[in-house]
Design goal:
five-stranded antiparallel sheet; globular
């Protein structure tokens, strides 16, 4: 079930990544096909701007995603909506302030980003592009903030509609600019801003009817931002070092190569948006699932998330790498011609060699954040996203020119993963050999005096054997026979009712987890069926005939507490005996 959910969430997060990336990708194609080489170089110099937008979007989007999911998983829906409300207000203020600053100080920013060299052409072009993008900055940040919430609130279709509207609007705007209005960079950037507005409007329509995510004016307390900031700071730092990396690489390239190589590198940054979106989606999917699973101390689920990330990295990413390597020339020709096209094809072939390793790196960067390994999170941000690549580029470009620059990408990914392996070996004082080792999980993760039972079933016929297994587990851990029988009754009755509520042809799973600690029993059901609240079903039985649903009635009397939530397309039902 976790594997299936991983891939479902991956698609949503991939669309979220593309929501801002596809606009700049289209800009790159149009600029390369219709404008000058210096326009391409100027466009490349502004790439840290795109990373800045993603930094703010990642800070707020990842922070609210983790906090909202955790509160929902703990059945604290009012707290979740209060945090959403204050975050939305703060994000709006920051987005507007950032847009005003970018627009007013666009010349200074262009100079800072490296337009001082060959300033006659690059300064004006870069400044105009920044000014056009600034107008849509609040909406681009808002889109990155809202897409994860759409997934939490089970509205995946709206995400797809929003990205399609954004893409079509941006493409039509770019074509109008280059074909009818002289083709200035300001106009192309403005069409990107307008497309972000349309995408934002589509997402806002989600709140017209019955959303569980609600804006609460009275719940706006700035103290609630603390938890969002703690959860969002690592992704923000990661994006920040991406921005710093872009700035440093542009200056190294200008210092040791030519404007043509910078233009080819700019096109590489544009082309790699598509394959890189899969890598980034691995990261955001990991943090969405692992943050909840780690809080629940679900070791089995965490292992499955890791295995799913490996499947994508060495399955999907490897396929993309092979395709991009084989078709590098036609892909490069789509973005430019002549010498730039040849350099871009060479760059693309080298870059995709490191794509599978980049997927694993992105898993770890986000897993460390979800599992509260903060030092390792910052290590991934500083070393994995900046130091390793900048160090390789500086050394190899200085001595081997453009080819050294291109080979730095796969080499830096491999060096970083090797460094993580060494850290893991030092931490456990042995060569990592198990999934627990690779996930940096020690032997006391579940607690020293805790006993865990986990089992998954996918048919109603398995409910009775599940009950028997539960009883045997409880007896083996010295629970009273009466309590053990109650646990078995709960397992069979709840699982049976979940399947009876979902009489369709789809494949369904019910995961049962029993946790025994100091004689206290906690039973958790998780399933991927239609939203179904057993707690409500039990409440409805109060007016039914006494002889009906005896099992559920007994559960109601025996339980100290019952809670239900539906988040990330999973039902979770918690019973404390």
């Amino acid at each position: 079930m976790i594997n299936k959910l991983f891939f479902q969430t991956l698609m949503v997060m991939l669309i979220a990544e593309l929501s801002t990336s596809v606009a700049t990708l289209l800009d790159g194609v149009i600029i390369a096909r219709f404008l000058s080489t210096k326009a391409i170089a100027a466009y490349g110099l502004t790439s840290p701007y795109t990373n800045m937008i993603k930094m703010f979007g990642g800070f707020f989007g990842t922070g609210i995603q983790i906090v909202y999911s955790r509160y929902s998983a703990k059945f604290q829906h009012e707290k979740a909506n209060n945090v959403f409300s204050v975050t939305a207000v703060v994000l709006g203020v920051i987005g507007i302030a950032a847009a005003a600053g970018m627009f007013i100080f666009s010349d200074q920013l262009a100079l800072f980003l490296g337009a001082s060299k060959d300033a006659d052409a690059l300064l004006v072009l870069s400044s105009n592009y920044i000014r056009g993008l600034a107008i849509g900055t609040p909406f681009q940040i808002a889109v990155l903030f809202m897409i994860p919430l759409m997934h939490i609130d089970n509205d995946k279709k709206r995400i797809a509609i929003a990205i399609n509207v954004t893409m079509i609007t941006n493409l039509l705007g770019d074509l109008l600019v280059v074909l009818l209005f002289d083709g200035h960079l300001f106009g192309i950037a403005l069409s990107t801003s307008v497309s972000a507005v349309f995408g934002f409007i589509v997402l806002m329509l989600h709140f017209r009817h019955g959303s569980s995510i609600k804006f609460n004016l009275h719940g706006i307390h700035i103290k609630n931002m603390g938890e969002v900031a703690r959860c969002g700071i690592v992704p923000a730092v990661f994006r920040s070092f991406s921005m710093i990396r872009g700035f440093l690489l542009n200056n190294i390239i200008l210092a040791y190569t030519s404007t043509g190589v910078l233009a080819a590198h700019s096109l590489l940054q544009n082309i790699k948006v598509m394959p890189n979106s899969v890598v980034m989606a691995i990261g955001t999917t990991t943090i969405a699932l692992a943050s909840v699973l780690y809080a629940e101390k679900d070791t089995k689920g965490l292992k499955q998330v890791f295995l799913s990330a490996v499947k994508v990295s060495f399955g999907v990413c490897l396929f993309i790498s092979a395709a991009a390597f084989v078709f590098s020339k036609p892909i490069a020709m789509l973005f430019g011609a002549g010498e730039i096209s040849a350099l871009t094809a060479q760059a693309l072939r080298c870059f995709v060699l490191g794509l599978p390793a980049a997927g694993i790196k992105m898993f770890y960067a986000n897993y460390f954040q979800a599992s509260n390994h903060k030092k390792l999170s910052y290590y991934c941000s500083v070393v994995g996203e900046c130091v390793s690549i900048v160090g390789c580029v500086y050394i190899l470009t200085k001595y081997f020119g453009a080819m050294g620059l291109w080979m730095s990408y796969p080499l830096s990914e491999i060096i970083f993963l090797l460094s993580l392996f060494v850290i893991d070996a030092v931490r456990f004082r042995r060569i990592p050999h198990s999934l627990n080792d690779l996930l940096f999980i020690d032997g006391h993760f579940d607690g020293e005096n805790v006993k865990i039972f986990e089992q998954s079933i996918h048919t109603i016929e398995e409910s009775q054997p599940l009950s028997q297994s539960s009883i045997e587990f409880c007896k083996a851990n010295h629970l009273e026979t009466k309590t053990s029988m109650y646990v078995g009754l709960v397992a069979e009755e709840v699982a049976s009712n979940i399947f009876e509520h979902n009489q369709d042809k789809k494949e369904h799973f019910v995961d049962l987890k029993i946790r025994i600690e100091n004689g206290s029993v906690l039973i958790r059901f998780r399933d991927n069926c239609r939203p179904f609240n057993p707690k409500d079903r039990i409440e409805m039985l109060k007016d039914d005939e006494p002889e009906h649903h005896i099992g559920l009635r007994i559960i109601s009397k025996l339980s100290k507490n019952m809670e239900y939530t539906h988040v990330l397309e999973l039902n979770q039902f918690l019973i404390e005996l």
